[in-house]
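Notes taken during the Thursday session

The instructor put the following on the board and asked us to keep it in front of us for the whole hour. The protein is Alkane 1-monooxygenase. We were told not to look anything up and to reason only from what is written here. First, the residues (378 in total):
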Amino acid sequence: MIPADTFPKFRSAMPFWMTLLNVPLAVTGTILGGIWVLLLPVYGFVLITLLDGLAGLNEENADPETAEADLFWYRAITLVWVPVQFVTLFWMIWYVADHRHLGVLEILGLTYGFGVMTGAAGIVYAHELLHQKNNLERWLGDLLLSMVLYSHFRSEHLLVHHLHVGTTRDAVTARYNEGFFRFFPRVLMECPRSAWRAEVAMLKRRGASALDRRNPFWRYAFLQLGMLVVALVLGGWYGLMLFLLQAFFAVWMLELTNYVEHYGLTRKYLGNGKYEHVKPHHSWNAAHKVSNWMLINLQRHSDHHYKPDRRFPLLQNYGADEAPQLPYGYPLMATIAMVPPLWRRMMNPKVRKWRAMYYPEITDWKPYKKGQHPEPAG
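Then, after some discussion, the predicted structure tokens were revealed:
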């Protein structure tokens, strides 16, 4: 018999399952082509933003001591999504490669839409999974990352970003006045190297070489090669092209999100290679209800940095007196970030206000803007 309190828990978790609506939209766009290929990005950016405006903010907090058993239906969507994304993605590759019914613009629109799905949903879910302690969830996170050829994100995020956010060592902390189109190629070059160095340094501390079998880059390479082979078998070179296009757009979505999350927010340099501890005001937050459903509370980003292994339904909201707030949810902010002059006009005054609020004693911000301080010691 199902316990009586199961159904209220199921209902409360259901809004976070809205990611599954991507699947019928993806199938419709794949089969019909034409303007229907835009269903996924319209859902992910336009509809979610409109619903944010209607639904408003959610500033309520769950009890952070909630038992793991009570989170079953929240955790379930992150587990279910892995096979769902795999089947949907590779079905699309097989179908389009087999039918050859789409023109160039339709292919670009469709793979962009799939990149929105595998990036704004798949990588966000991977992010949640890789932060957990059990091997099953971490492996599922690795599978999602391998579907977009960005497996090193696990190492970079856990070993670099969370330790060094807001400092010169963290590539994905966007600098003040740095446009997204400068930020994107920079992180594509710096993050894989940074992730590799972090893993090699960890192995060295254990007395092992860079090529030791415990280096997760072996696993990353195996999983990514496997995904490439599946795409090639199902769709030939045409299918491989489709796979690579969606992977590129997925990474684009991820790095847009990274750009928004910490733009211009730096930790105070204390001298001798030391920086202040990470605090809530080192992340941009958004309490917009519907985009937080879609992004499983990723926008409660300050609390995520405070408690990285806290599961998403328990992440706490921070008010404007504790952490900087974005005027809109991530989907709209990411869209604005792709128009650098508009982004700077909106966000630079907010960064300057943040500086005056938290660091009135700092009079020279040039070393922070230019990343000229030494990297953190250790």
